[in-house]
Amino acid sequence: MTSTHDFEATTADGRRVPLSEYAGKTLLIVNVASKCGLTPQYEGLESLYRDAGSRGLEVLGFPCNQFKEQEPGTDEEIQDFCRTTYDVTFPVFSKIEVNGPDADPLYRYLRAEAPGDFGPQYGGFYDAISKIRPDADGTDEVKWNFTKFLIGRDGKVIKRYEPPVPPSDIKTDLENYL
């Protein structure tokens, strides 16, 4: 696999979608959860999508229940939550795993291309996650919900943003790729 466009994703209603359908667009791929302290980032992600969608941005949400079971719902419940709580209009796909032996191939690729910079610069968040997941420190694993990957129009990974980085802080970088 040479780019994000070489992968497929499953929609919440079970359809397989080739990510090549997003060729020519800038992507922000995010693992999401509805019962996390970072869940309000949905609002910022939706704001980015509404502001830049007409200029080629697609936000793609991938629910994941691997972090303290903060996404326990069914795909249908997740869709309802996103619509009714945050008025999400960007695609939120079927629930996946982002780490471990059952990690979705897309996420294995994203992690390898952008291992991240999770460290003490994230302050209290780093301290908390390091206690919860000490085995993940120093690995390319997704550390928590709302890890964001910026993907260029060519499908190549540009940058990884760790969970505490709010969507508003990504806006400047996005402008360089839209």
UniProtKB/TrEMBL annotation:
UniProt cross-references to InterPro entries, sorted A to Z: Glutathione_peroxidase, GPX_AS, GPX_CS, Thioredoxin-like_sf
Coiled coil among the record's keywords? no
Its name, as the record gives it, is Glutathione peroxidase
Q: Which family does it belong to?
A: Belongs to the glutathione peroxidase family.
Q: Name one GO molecular function term.
A: peroxidase activity
Q: Which PANTHER family match?
A: GLUTATHIONE PEROXIDASE
**CDD domains reported in the protein's UniProt record:** GSH_Peroxidase
Q: Which UniProt keywords apply?
A: Oxidoreductase, Peroxidase
| Matching Pfam families | GSHPx
Q: Which organism is it from?
A: Actinomadura rugatobispora
Going by the entry's taxonomy, the superkingdom of the source organism is recorded as Bacteria
